[in-house]
């Protein structure tokens, strides 16, 4: 059996899960158009006096995002000893920005450092007792420890993008017959339910990779080196357009209330709140959308002391405790003492400050975003969230979809606590209030919200507006 490697590479909200074979080149396709390639190899080497297995991989992607060219290059390496990770290095480059991660794996914790254009951050991630840590779930295939059909297995995978452990479910499914350039063949099917980007592997009886599929019609197919590298570096397919969801029936921006039926996907983990209700309805999910509550204009920031304190703490990419951000928040807010007034001033500041650069594929922290003053929706959210926390307002991050010209596109924003409700705030738009044009799918930390839940494959129908 060839040794396979799976690396989760997120381009904005998704670029699917990526499989590697030992010494194998793979072509990367999005809805039939080549957008890049990957390569990996595994060797035995000495590491701190021990013989270990080292897997090194490279991926290059070139496509479009909202009309801007997006090129991403990722180099990574993992050191494994006795089937357990020892060390990982990861470097991602896009639009002149870089992110480098080094992680050391101990018995009880992972010590990881992240270096970006604004400096270095370190995080210690506890390893839950009795839990198995894999660099990718496909290690189960290689070790012969795959679950049997009908009995999924949960493992933990380290995410270098968020410096977190992600719970991933690996499921063996019944054998299928699939089409290949050489004709129809039988394939062993392995479904990897990764919340960042689910994927399906199709393997031969020997365990060789036939192909791998992911969200939005992404495919990775074994090819020769010459064939794999045959792409322009800037494919014309646009990730935003490729991932949009167009409902059956008309829905308009500004509708006071919208009722949707969503089928073909499990929405049991999609949150409900004062603006959005998600309920099981027959073979689908009924999603009721309206306007956010208006923040209480009389609540003072000082009165929030002791409330939602976990959402005031600095975090990876959210340096709200830095004195520079505390001082900037005071300057932006001025003499305003109310939550609503301060949030409105921070919204206006970020909206006016930030320019658009949709070609940045690297997730950055608020320091670098503030320095460059450009980015995409997640950059807006990270900067706004950092300033809100620095001003003493509990803030969490949200991800989901936003309505634009009749279709839903993936988007990110923040939510702040006004003492009674979580209030949505989108600094990519001049409006202070979220309306029925937003569908929230995840919320929480930057890692939880901005790398979460896709509605890939969902069918949306407008049933009332």
How would you describe this structure to a colleague?
It is a single chain. The chain is mainly β and 465 residues long. It has two domains: 4-243; 258-464, C8orf32 fold (Roll). The chain is 14% helix and 45% strand. It contains eight helices and 27 strands. The protein has helices spanning 139-143, 225-228, 239-243, 323-333, 339-353, 366-372, 377-390, 446-450, and strands at residues 4-8, 17-21, 24-30, 33-47, 50-65, 68-81, 84-94, 97-105, 109-116, 119-126, 133-134, 153-159, 164-180, 183-193, 199-203, 209-213, 218-223, 258-263, 276-281, 284-289, 355-356, 374-375, 395-404, 407-417, 422-425, 438-444, 459-464. The strands form five sheets. Strands 10-9-8-7-6-5-4-3-17-16-15-14-13-12-11 form a 15-stranded mixed sheet. α5 runs antiparallel to α7 (377-390) and α6 crosses α7. The longest helix has 15 residues, at 339-353. It is globular. The termini are far apart. Mean pLDDT is 87; it is low at 1-22.
Strand-helix topology:
Layout: E1 4-8, E2 17-21, E3 24-30, E4 33-47, E5 50-65, E6 68-81, E7 84-94, E8 97-105, E9 109-116, E10 119-126, E11 133-134, H1 139-143, E12 153-159, E13 164-180, E14 183-193, E15 199-203, E16 209-213, E17 218-223, H2 225-228, H3 239-243, E18 258-263, E19 276-281, E20 284-289, H4 323-333, H5 339-353, E21 355-356, H6 366-372, E22 374-375, H7 377-390, E23 395-404, E24 407-417, E25 422-425, E26 438-444, H8 446-450, E27 459-464
Parallel strand pairs: 11-12, 21-22
Antiparallel strand pairs: 1-2, 3-4, 3-17, 4-5, 5-6, 6-7, 7-8, 8-9, 9-10, 12-13, 13-14, 14-15, 15-16, 16-17, 18-20, 18-27, 19-20, 23-24, 23-26, 24-25
Helix pairs in contact: 4-7, 5-7, 6-7
């Amino acid at each position: 059996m060839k040794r396979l490697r799976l690396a989760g590479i997120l381009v904005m909200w998704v670029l699917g899960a990526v499989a590697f074979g030992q010494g194998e080149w793979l072509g990367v396709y999005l809805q039939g158009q080549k957008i890049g390639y990957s390569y990996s190899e595994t060797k035995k080497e000495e590491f701190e006096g021990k013989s270990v297995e080292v897997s090194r991989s490279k991926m290059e992607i070139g496509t479009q995002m909202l009309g801007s060219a997006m090129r991403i290059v990722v180099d990574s390496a993992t050191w494994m000893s006795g089937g357990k990770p020892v060390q990982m290095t990861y470097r991602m480059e896009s639009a002149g920005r870089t992110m480098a991660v080094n992680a050391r794996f101990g018995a009880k914790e992972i010590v990881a450092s992240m270096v970006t254009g604004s400096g270095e951050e370190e995080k210690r991630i506890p390893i839950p007792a009795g839990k198995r840590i894999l660099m990718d779930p496909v290690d189960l295939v290689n070790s012969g420890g795959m679950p049997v059909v009908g009995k999924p297995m949960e493992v933990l995978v380290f995410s270098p993008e968020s410096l977190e452990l992600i719970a991933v479910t690996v499921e063996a499914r019944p054998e299928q017959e699939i089409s290949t350039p050489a004709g129809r063949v039988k394939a062993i099917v392995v479904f990897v339910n990764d919340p960042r980007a689910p994927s399906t592997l199709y393997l031969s009886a020997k365990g060789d990779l036939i192909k791998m599929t992911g969200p939005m019609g992404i495919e990775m197919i074994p090819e020769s080196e010459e064939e794999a590298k045959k792409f322009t570096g800037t494919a014309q397919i646009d990730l935003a357009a490729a991932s949009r969801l167009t409902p059956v029936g008309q829905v308009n921006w500004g509708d006071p209330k919208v009722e949707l039926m969503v089928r073909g996907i499990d929405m049991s983990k999609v949150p409900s709140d004062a603006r959005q209700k998600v309920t099981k309805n027959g073979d689908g999910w009924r999603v009721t959308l309206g306007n956010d509550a208006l923040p209480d204009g009389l609540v003072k920031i000082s009165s929030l002391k002791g409330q939602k304190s976990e959402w005031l703490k600095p975090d990876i990419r959210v340096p709200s405790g830095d004195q520079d951000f505390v001082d900037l928040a005071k300057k932006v807010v001025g003499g305003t003492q109310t939550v609503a007034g301060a949030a409105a001033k921070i919204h206006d500041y970020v909206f006016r400050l930030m320019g658009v650069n949709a070609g940045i594929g690297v997730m950055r922290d608020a320091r670098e975003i503030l320095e460059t003053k450009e980015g995409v929706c997640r950059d807006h959210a990270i900067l706004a969230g950092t300033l809100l926390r620095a001003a003493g307002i509990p803030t969490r991050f949200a991800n989901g979809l936003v309505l634009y010209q009749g279709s839903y596109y993936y988007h990110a924003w923040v939510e702040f606590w006004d003492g009674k409700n979580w209030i949505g705030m989108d600094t990519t738009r001049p409006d202070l209030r979220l309306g029925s044009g937003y569908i929230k799918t995840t919320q929480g930390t930057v890692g939880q919200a901005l790398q979460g839940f896709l509605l890939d494959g969902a069918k949306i129908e407008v049933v009332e507006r």
